[in-house]
Design brief:
The structure is a single chain. The protein is α+β, with helices and mostly antiparallel strands. The protein has one domain: Roll (2,3-Dihydroxybiphenyl 1,2-Dioxygenase, domain 1), CATH 3.10.180. Helix 7 packs across helix 8 and helix 9 packs across helix 10. The longest helix is centred in the N-terminal third of the chain and has 21 residues. It contains 19 helices and twelve strands. The protein binds 2-oxoadipic acid (OOG) and nickel (II) ion.
Length: 461
């Protein structure tokens, strides 16, 4: 099995496993599929502007959380086997009002062909154990000792991962073994949880408890992609599923979809075995895992992203102190005021990423192509295709984390935070954390490099 086949198989098996563990996820997938079919029926080819219906229907992202740099490094090896590389750095420690002691990256394929085959991605968070704003010396020492004593991924799984990464494929039998072990590593464990230890971490942050309070890891959610997230939100609510208050990210508006919009249903109470200090085991329940859904738009350039971030600040300012449901209207107004209403203008103003392609049936009247990109587009020599945003948004990520916590936890804002950045994550994984903008720029530039040759008249070499 080639890497992309391993990746697709892993995503598929993870989806079946998660559907067994969290039945509401299956509802979410079903409703997403229905919405996608309806959108395809209503909009036809336009519905596939940002990805074929085949890709969109199969598309998932997962979220996992680990405790130590060593564990993160192992995660890098497992996803490396699946042709997924760390992209982007998200520091969630300061973005939310609840305590979120994590920094994150996302593992995903980076080549266009690989993304088209299967775009599976996993948002991966690392607990910031050494950040004194969350953990004092005593708790840090206990946490470090606890994490040092657990093994998330066994040696056989890691050896198979290394082989798949080096050879870019695995023979069938090894592939089967690898997939089985990899999926099992992300199942919810039935092992009893030390109740007092979990509670001690929960006082700092429920996320810290979920990561460092148990001896294994698990998938936190698995997210399908939907073509109309507002419609999905309505249908889920109509089915009686309790959704979080809002759709995170850009508002619904009449212009082009950009970046990413996400929403989720609230974390469900799942039965978990708890061990009391006297050794007795009782059945308790923890609310940790939830269901999330997303709609993807066009990737923004650095300029486009800077504008987006300024608009977000403007929306905050204008909706401060007003009821939550006003925010959507304010955001729509701000978007309409400042963002171009068409894809064409988004490209012309250098705000969105596109690839450029020679038009095959352009008028063969012998005229020479103009030299300028805008003129080539205007005169119909070239067409621009949007590049889909393949990454995440720190504020939405924090919003998703936060809206599923019932307690804010505690953070000592007056203490100096410890430095975690992309370079540090790259160093601990011994894998470079790629900059998403650079990846999109390369994709655009590769398409531009092909233009001169494609526009050369027949017979001239
Ligand atoms: C990750 C939350 C962020 C997203 O899609 O932005 C996230 C987590 O809960 O572990 O999944
Ligand atoms: Ni997510």
């Amino acid at each position: 099995m080639e890497q992309w086949q391993l990746r697709a198989a892993f995503a598929g098996r993870l989806s079946r496993m998660y559907g067994r563990e969290v039945p509401a996820y299956t509802t979410l997938v079903d409703v997403s599929r229905e919405v996608n079919e309806d959108v395809l029926g209503a909009r036809g080819a336009a519905a596939e502007r940002l990805g074929s219906i085949g890709r969109v229907t199969a598309e998932r992202h997962g979220a996992i959380r680990v405790g130590t740099p060593g564990e993160l490094r192992q995660v890098g090896r497992i996803f490396g086997a699946l042709g997924m590389r760390p992209v982007g750095f998200y520091d969630l420690r300061d973005t939310a009002t609840s305590a979120l002691p994590v920094v994150s990256t996302a593992f995903r394929p980076v080549d266009e062909d690989e993304l088209a085959r299967n775009p599976f991605r996993v948002f991966t968070s690392l607990l910031t154990v050494s950040d004194p704003r969350f953990f004092d010396a005593d708790l840090r020492a206990r946490l470090t000792a606890f994490l040092a004593g657990r093994e998330l991924f066994g040696p056989e799984l890691l050896a198979l991962a290394d082989r798949a990464e080096a050879e870019r494929e695995l023979p069938d039998a090894e592939a089967e073994r690898f997939l089985g072990l990899a999926v099992a590593a992300f199942e919810l464990s039935a092992e009893p949880i030390d109740r007092d230890w979990y509670a001690a971490l929960e006082r700092v942050s429920a996320v810290a408890a979920d990561i460092g309070g148990v001896r294994s890891t698990h998938l936190n959610h698995l997210t399908p992609r939907v073509l109309d997230i507002d419609e999905l939100y309505r249908r889920m609510t109509a089915r009686g599923v309790e959704m979080i208050d809002t759709i995170q990210g850009p508002p619904r508006w009449t212009g082009p979809d950009v970046l990413l919009r996400q929403t989720s249903f609230r974390a469900l109470a799942e039965p978990r075995a708890l061990r009391a200090p006297d050794g007795s085991v009782t059945r308790g329940a923890l609310r940790v895992r939830f269901g999330e859904v997303e709609a993807r738009g066009i990737a923004l350039t650095r300029e486009g992203r800077a504008l987006h971030d300024r608009l977000l600040a403007l929306v905050d300012e204008r909706s401060a102190g007003r009821p939550a449901d006003v925010r959507g209207d304010v955001a729509r107004a701000v978007w309409s005021e400042h963002l171009p209403p068409t894809e064409h203008e988004l490209a012309a103003r250098g705000l969105g990423f596109f690839t450029y392609h020679a038009v095959a049936d352009r008028p063969a009247d012998g005229s020479r192509p103009p030299a300028d990109l805008d003129d080539l587009l205007a005169a119909g020599w070239l067409r621009a295709e949007p590049i889909v945003y393949e990454d995440f948004l720190p504020r939405s990520a924090a919003g998703i984390f936060q809206s599923n916590l019932s307690d804010t936890g505690s953070r000592h804002g007056d203490r100096e935070g410890s430095a975690y950045d992309a370079d540090r994550l790259s160093a601990v994984m011994d894998r470079e954390v790629a900059d998403p903008f650079t990846l999109y720029e390369r994709q655009r530039d590769r398409s531009l490099d092909r233009i001169p040759r494609a526009l050369r008249p027949e017979g001239v070499s």
